[in-house]
Amino acid sequence: MSGATLERRLANFRRAVAATIPAGADRARSRELAQRMAAAVDGEVLLDDLGAVVRCEPLTVVLPLDRDRLAWLPGQPPADAPLLCLDTETTGLATAAGTVAWLVGLGWWEGDRFRQAQLLLPDHSDEPALLARIAAHLPRDAWLVTYNGRGFDWPLLTTRYRMNFHDPPPHAGHLDLLPFVRRVFRHRMVDARLRTVETTLLGVVRHEDVEGWEIPSRYHEFLRGGPAEPLADVVRHNREDVRSLGRLLADVDVRFGSPAGRPHGHPGDHAGLARAFARERRLEEALALVETALAAIRPDRRLADGAANGDDEAWWAPRAPVDFGGRLPRPSGAPLAAARLDSPWTEERILVERARLLRRLGRFAAAEATWQALGSGNGPYAVHAWVEVAKLREHRLGDPRGAIAAVDRALAVVERRRRLGRPDPRAEADLVHRRARLLARVGLRTATARRAAPPTTPPAQAAVVGRSAGSRPMPAAVRGRPPGPGPR
Asked: Which listed residue, 89, 121, 128, 220, has the most CB atoms within 10 A of its CB?
């Protein structure tokens, strides 16, 4: 079939379909769906030339937020920028052209009160009206606040605006709270879902909440003529999602922005926030948070974290799994999400962060002392610590002989772990290579100093020595290479 024939048949089909649908039937069906939806979710119908939209306005809640303290934290919006929390419920879990956002929840602050509005789409033909209402709620100087909104919600809305031949509404910035939660709180959460954040951080437990995978089917059933009452659970779910965005921002403000609440926080939270400061090159603030985390660690917590981390002091514990290589087996009966997203913040890990920050700040002597404290043990951190000591002594402190001594200490730790049944051939090979290079460097400097020294023998004797030296090969240490191993 040629292209012209196919286009002609499509045009005839469109005319036939248009003839069977009376004028204004789409708008009448849209209004009928809007009335049913509004009655089920306790909303109001908004009509204009673009179509119908159902609007729900939940009760406002008191939710104080100190914007000046919040702006001090890394990645947060400026204190004078309006904030608009946004969450969508869609007809699918993808951002392709066929996925539509049929419920958009919005939340913003007016003083200490948190206001919300929810916009619902009665029918697909009313999408231009919904998009226009969203743009009217978003000021140009506002910051969006979402949870995984950079990867899902806002790209989906951007696609819908472009499908309707409009540009997405401009805004000043976008604060996605998911990366912040993963960076700061991942050490004590089984996953990074918003419901887990509510339970772990905010102490909020939802009852009789609808699951996310059920939401598209409920809306499709409504469009096919089904009841509108199941949509009320979805509206309540979206209302709690938007409200949790505001609660999470307020919790972060009190937990980290307030000087009174900072010393009582979790040490791992402070260490994760220190990494966020370090990413913005605010090293002094990061170092202060690391010191706060170290001060908050208790001795009993150190032992528990050490056992969970599998160090030498706890490898013999009865509950520790046997390490046969590869992935550790999951205990029988344990859920799939029983493990943390990351290993816990032990005292050793926090000391590693402190040493790295000190080096970036140029405090090499203090960084060396911190690495030496880590190297006093016999666990896997000790090998890494002595390697870092060797790097500092060689490249920053100008002490290659001290670097050789640090490499020897690291080799001793590797040898001890090998005898305990925990060999690390890669680390051992790297240390042997590093030691050979440092010995060559020390030997080269010694030979250079000898050549630069003034002669102390008579000229005639020097000539004899020179002839004898020319007839013999130069020692390996003078040539810049370490001498070979002698007879055993």
From this structure: 121
What is the C-alpha to C-alpha distance for residues 359 and 371, in angstroms, rounded to an integer? 11
Asked if 230 and 268 sit in the same domain, the reply is no
Contact 307, 281 (CB under 8 A): no
Cα(248)–Cα(181) distance, integer angstroms: 10
Closest by CA position to 230, among listed 216, 242, 248, 240 = 216
- For residue 230, how many C-alpha atoms fall within 13 Å in the half-sphere facing its CB? 15
Instruction: Give the closest residue to 90 by CA, choosing from 239, 230, 260, 220.
Output: 220
- Does the structure show a pLDDT above 50 at 315? no
The tokens 């619902």 sit on which residue?
Answer: 120
pLDDT tens digits, one per residue of 182-202: 999 988 888 889 999 999 999
Q: Are residues 428 and 411 in the same domain?
A: yes
Residue 422 in domain? yes
Instruction: Please spell the DSSP secondary structure of 364-400, one letter per residue.
Output: HHHHHHHHHHHHTS-SHHHHHHHHHHHHIIIIIS--H
Q: Does 113 fall in a domain?
A: yes
Whether residues 287 and 304 share a domain: the answer is yes
Cα–Cα distance, 197 to 189 (Å, whole number): 8
Q: Do 266 and 251 belong together in one domain?
A: no
Averaged pLDDT, 287-295: 91
The token pair at 36 is 């049913």
Examine residue 384 and state whether it is found in any structural domain, yes or no. Answer: yes
The single-letter code of the amino acid at 21 is I
pLDDT at 319 over 70: no
Q: 35-83: per-residue pLDDT in tens?
A: 999 999 999 999 999 999 999 999 999 999 999 999 999 999 999 999 9
Question: Which structural domain range is residue 284 located in?
Answer: 259-313+340-361
Instruction: Please tell me what DSSP assigns to residue 345.
Output: -
- The residue among 240, 257, 274 that closes a domain is 257
Of 146 and 322, more confident:
146
Give the distance, in angstroms, between the CA of residue 446 and the centroid of all CA atoms in the same chain. Answer: 49
